[in-house]
Design brief:
The chain contains 4 helices and no strands. The relative contact order is 0.09. The protein is elongated and about 55 Å long. It is mostly helical and 75 residues long. α1 runs antiparallel to α2 and α3 packs antiparallel against α4.
Length: 75
């Protein structure tokens, strides 16, 4: 997305306007929403794994709870 933005910016005002129209449309917003959800999920699950690396959270109930927290954080 960033590379496409930079390329369209370098190609001139018409290309930039076209790129911004695509990214501002429904498909572009859907892609950006998916990317944002992926970043939030990856961040929350990374914190969960850091807790596991510390040797904590292996109890099945706690593990299930943290899985629910990760999904809730993503939403």
């Amino acid at each position: 997305i960033l590379a496409g933005w930079a390329i369209s910016l370098a190609m001139g005002p018409e290309a930039y306007a076209g790129y911004m129209a695509v990214m501002g449309g429904p498909l572009g917003k859907l892609v950006l929403l998916g990317l944002t959800a992926a970043i939030f999920y990856h961040t929350a699950n990374g914190i969960r794994h850091l807790v596991w690396d510390a040797g904590l959270g292996f109890d099945p109930k706690f593990s299930d709870l943290t899985a629910i927290v990760v999904i809730a954080f993503t939403v």
